[in-house]
Amino acid sequence: MTLDRAVQAFAGVMVLVSVLLTQFVHPNFFWLTVFIGANLFQSAFTGFCPAAMVMKKLGIGRGDGASCSRC
Length: 71
Known about the structure:
The protein is 66% helix and 0% strand. The protein is mostly helical.
């Protein structure tokens, strides 16, 4: 799995988790969804993605040549 795909999968899972938490735990978990969306939006323009940096250090996406060049 490439780093970009891993970040997309992680973001998708986090959005789904935050929606479930909002529905079943407390409405203020809505802000987790907002944070995830804002982070995805800013990373599209700046290339700065904390999740990609952590995943890269963990070895996800290495060796395929298609990883994020700015992370």
